[in-house]
Design goal:
Immunoglobulin-like; three-stranded antiparallel beta sheet; mainly beta; 141 residues; 10% helix; four-stranded antiparallel beta sheet; elongated
């Protein structure tokens, strides 16, 4: 019976080393804020330049925002995430400005309220990758 307890404890410890762990070790934590979006046409846009910021939070390691995942499919490109030491005020954590291009998948007109992120995928400097649901969707256009 004691061997089962030891094996169970060892399994829990080892899960911290894999991408299947219960804990997000080495995964950056970020705040994503939308910026202005510029359509290629004021009346019938099929492509939009989307600007947004990525800000790490205190205690977050560095890494990469791989993508912002859009409602209904599609992604916006991400950017680097810089580490922010634990004792840093959140207002002083590093910010990355991102300019991403979004093109309508079918070539149809993009309507306001249709470019909405529902989750994001990050990769830590240790190579671990995670996708997180946003607490609330972010509308970019």
């Amino acid at each position: 019976m004691r061997a089962y307890w030891i094996l169970g404890a060892l399994a829990v410890l080892l899960t911290g080393c894999s991408n299947f762990s219960l804990f997000a070790v080495g995964i950056p934590t970020v705040v994503i804020s939308p910026g202005p979006s510029t359509p290629n046409s004021p009346t019938q846009p099929t492509e939009i330049q989307i600007n947004y910021t990525i800000q790490s939070v205190p205690g977050s390691p560095g890494g990469v925002l791989v993508s912002l995942n859009l409602k209904g499919g599609g992604t916006l490109t991400g950017g680097p995430i810089y580490a922010c030491p634990q004792d840093t005020p959140s207002s002083q954590c590093p910010i990355t400005n991102v300019a991403a291009s979004f093109t309508s998948p079918s070539g149809s007109v993009i309507t306001p309220g249709s470019v909405v992120a529902v989750s994001y995928t990050v990769q830590g400097e240790n190579g671990a990758v995670r996708t997180f649901q946003l607490p609330q969707p972010i509308t970019f256009y």
